[in-house]
Amino acid sequence: MSGMRRGEILGLRWDGLDASGSTTTVTRQWKPGEHGFVLGPPKTDRGRRTVDIDAETLAVLKGWRRSQHEERMVFDGVWLDTGHVFTRKDGRAHDPDVVLRYDRLVRQAGLPRVRFRGLRRTHATLLLLAGVPPHVVSMRLGHRSVAFTLQQYAHVLPQQQADAVERLATRLLGDS
Fold first, then answer.
1. Most buried residue, 21, 36, 84, 129, by most Cβ within 10 Å?
2. pTM of the entire predicted model
3. Which residues pair with 29 in a beta bridge?
4. Which residues contact residue 158 at a Cβ distance below 8 angstroms, ignoring those fewer than 6 apart?
């Protein structure tokens, strides 16, 4: 629902979640380093961004926070308080490859196969098909430019041409 990269999702911290404004701020991400994954700044300058989140996702995050507090009590004394939204039961950060389990869970559930990475692409595609302006999609995804977004998703836009020409004709010619 956010269009965020896996490393950005796993790099989210609770202090970056604004529940009253229904936003989350991307300031760091897990990315490959010399000896495994390291926490660092987002992939691009535009990767540092605030992402609006919907009410249902916000409710799920609040429920997750309650669960995380319960885990903290169970692991009292050994809980590692990293401040991250998504952690292991003892508070330690997840290795970004943990999302690969998602693919297995989807397969086991008999759901249509959409890889985790595909969720980001699906997010962008559905936004564009819904008529969301490309510059807004580009901002949500943290792309370096709108041109990059259009280069990646131009195949979606021709489907919108018929609607666009009808809107233009209606505007210029009226309801004739």
1. 84
2. 0.82
3. 40
4. none
